[in-house]
Amino acid sequence: MTEAEENLPLSKTKRKQLAKGVEDLAYSLVELPLAQFKRLKLKDELAAEVVEARNTVGRGSHKRQVKHLAGVLRKSADELPALIAAIEGIDQVKRTDKRSFHKLEDLRDRLCDEQTFSAALDEMAGIWPTMDRGVISRLSKSVHTTADKRAYREIFKRLREVAEQHELAANAGE
After folding, report:
1. Are both 52 and 111 inside the same structural domain?
2. Would you report the helix, strand and coil content of the chain in percent, each value rounded to 5?
3. DSSP state, 82?
4. Are residues 70 and 19 in the same domain?
5. Which residues, other chains included, contact 74 with Cβ-Cβ below 8 Å and sequence gap of 6+?
6. 114-161 per-position pLDDT tens digit
């Protein structure tokens, strides 16, 4: 961008795009789970506006309140980059959690399929050597023979528990 282009005012389309981006940020703030919202470092005025928008119940009034919050956000432009980075960090964690969840579901499904069972069991043992192969084998055989839904859920529960323990141990070792 040249110096002459930098001095030009923003086009109407660009201003609308920026305003829409701030409004999306306002919706993200309002829809954050309470625990994550409390971890954000917001100024008191901004935090009060977000709480007000979160507590507004009616559809039209809620939408109006979020638009008002977007206006307050635009006025505090100095905080926007840090706030956007915080929200994107939270979204990244959600995507990572979702990806891990799907990997566990896939492994469970392969354990519960007779054709892919042995390869999946070997893969599981390679990832988590401390995992009790006998229990998983017994539960998988129950699913293979009787389509036992309880055993199906139990396999996932055990996989998730060992994955969480493994992640905690890895984080503690950092």
Report:
1. no
2. 80, 0, 20
3. H
4. yes
5. 19, 22
6. 888 888 888 888 887 888 888 888 888 888 888 888 988 888 888 888
At 69, list the tokens. 């919050």
Taking the C-alpha atoms of residue 133 and residue 122, their distance in angstroms, rounded to an integer, is 9
- Residue 156 belongs to some domain of the structure: yes
pTM value surpassing 0.70: no
**Containing structural domain, residue 15:** 3-77
**Average pLDDT estimate for 60-71:** 86
Q: How far apart are CA 108 and CA 159, in angstroms?
A: 8
**Residue range 74-122, pLDDT digits in tens:** 877 777 777 777 777 776 667 777 788 888 888 888 888 888 888 888 8
Instruction: Note whether residue 84 is domain-resident.
Output: no
Q: Residue 78 is encoded by which pair of tokens? A: 């100095």
Residue 172 scores a pLDDT above 70: no
- With beta carbons less than 8 A apart as the criterion, state whether 37 and 29 touch: yes
User: What CATH number is attached to the domain comprising 101?
Assistant: 1.10.60
For residue 70, with 0-12 CB atoms within 10 Å meaning exposed, 13-18 middle and 19 or more buried, which class applies?
buried
